[in-house]
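Thread: "does anyone have the structure for this chain?"

Original post by V.I.:
We have the sequence but no experimental structure in hand. Need at least a predicted one for the grant figures.
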Amino acid sequence: MAKIKLMLADNHAAVREGLKALFEKITDVKVAAEADDGIQTLEKVKSTRPEVLLMDLSMPRLTGIEAIGQIKQASENTEIIILSMIQKRDYIREALHAGAMGYLLKTSPFEEVLGAVRSAYQKTYYLSSEINADIIHNYLKKDSAEPFLNKLNQLTRREHIVFRMMAEGRTPNEIAGRLAISPKTVAKHRTNLMEKLAVKNTATLVRYALQIGVVDLEKQAGSTE
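Reply from O.Q.:
Generated one for you, tokens below.
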């Protein structure tokens, strides 16, 4: 029986070791490579060409969102599953938009992780049950943020990132430093995204970001301390 060639990427060794021990008991999956940061993940994907990559969203040197696009360019047949503690809808949307085949929470049982790996191998999308429940809840809720969510889909991947960082209270210089771009480029992204979202000031942008779950109140308040 052919085995699914799997790669694990997480900056916590205990997480990788735990997953590897569980996958060693599965007859149709083989852990072929591991990595502990974004750059190493990209390099090992290029050298080992895994069929499925199970990757954390928050890693040093190159974050998951930024890495997804580069990994798909380097190895288009490698399907990516995000395994993260982050349940923000905007992060999930960004990951899938960037090319991920699935998104799981680290609270997911191993049966779901295994199901996601097998689904990705079959080129089928997979979301953890908790995320699916959240999507259904918010679809039924139909609150006043829905028109804003429709506009949010018009943003480019980079504009999504700048939007989230603005909502977190980061300054243009901080955003520029984090993304390795100039403050002038940040200003251009800011102008474009605010025009697409039809908001006239940062306060309105932050209010909508809180409402749709891009950032939480505690994190946004902490950024202003």
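V.I.: this helps a lot. The first helix runs from residue 13 to 23.
O.Q.: and Confidence is low (pLDDT under 50) at residues 216-225.
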